[in-house]
Amino acid sequence: MDVITFGESMVLFNPDAKGPLRYIHTFSKALAGAESNVAIALARLEHNVGWFSKLGDDEFGRYIECFIRGEGVDISRVIKDVTKSTGLLFKERFAHVNPNVYYYRKNSAASYLSTDDIDYEYIKSAKILHVTGITPALSESAKETVIKVVDYAKENNVIVSFDPNIRLKLWSIEEAKPVILELCRKADILFPGIDEAEMLLGISEPKEIIEAFHEMGPKMVVLKLGKEGCRVSDKEEEYFVNGYTVKTMEDSVGAGDGFAAGFLSGLLRDKSLKECGEYANGVGAMATLVKGDVEGLPTYDQLLTFIDKKEYVDR
């Protein structure tokens, strides 16, 4: 495997119209989950990827399995729990703003993920392990599992990639901060957003943020700056990489996951640090062009065309 990741995926219900959910009567069903978004993005970029979680033994769980497997991601280590349900979430849309998100995931099957559920030989088979700060927010057992898997990966020379992905609807910043910072210290590649960095470190200047995170341990820090682009550093080199212009953004959810996948794809292809940043910005921007978390994620050829690395031929 090039990359293995794990965490909760849910069934997303997207409203077919804008406005408060109490006035919405029809929804479109889709997939949601930061880690599966990254896995699908990497699979579309032609990498061998594995994803696992715990799912309810229900129709929503079967839908998630079929969807992710259909994208070319290995799901052989997924566990079914006959006593728990698969998590759900609903989006609420208003004009020209990011959607509101409502979770129905408390006591879901994935929240019961434990250290006994892990195939450690499978983890060892990866070049990169990608984890996020969402999974440890689900439960105490999920938090222990993330930390143990990360430690095992590091002991077995697997590169650890970490996206803090702070979700204050799942836990408070007081609960999140010590756990997220512990995982930052263990990471080899770190993907903080500028707002997350301010919450964690209390500073807002990008260069200072990167220096502070490097001092914790990560070899690479990839600071997400939204539409402006990103700042990438590997301690020896540091670059600001301009973002790509998106005239009409349909949905920003999933863009950060696409961003991380783009960077990891460049790394796996031995691209330069700056090129990895361009890949990250490109996938992140393309993810916003289509409604849904994964629907806008590009193939490798589409990415190269979008970032002007390949000429577009329309017919």
Automatic annotation (TrEMBL):
Kindly give the CDD domains that the UniProt entry links to this protein: KdgK (cd01166)
UniProt superkingdom: Bacteria
Give the UniProt keywords, A-Z.
Answer: ATP-binding, Kinase, Nucleotide-binding, Transferase
Where would I find the Carbohydrate kinase PfkB domain in this sequence?
3-299
**Which PROSITE patterns does this UniProt record tie to the protein?**
PFKB_KINASES_2 (PS00584)
Q: Which GO terms describe its molecular function?
A: ATP binding; kinase activity
Q: Where is the signal peptide?
A: none
Q: Which InterPro entries match?
A: Carboh/pur_kinase_PfkB_CS, PfkB_Carbo_kinase, PfkB_dom, Ribokinase-like
Family designation: Belongs to the carbohydrate kinase PfkB family.
Stated name of the protein: Sugar kinase
Q: What is the protein's species of origin?
A: Vallitalea guaymasensis
Lineage of source species: Bacteria, Bacillati, Bacillota, Clostridia, Lachnospirales
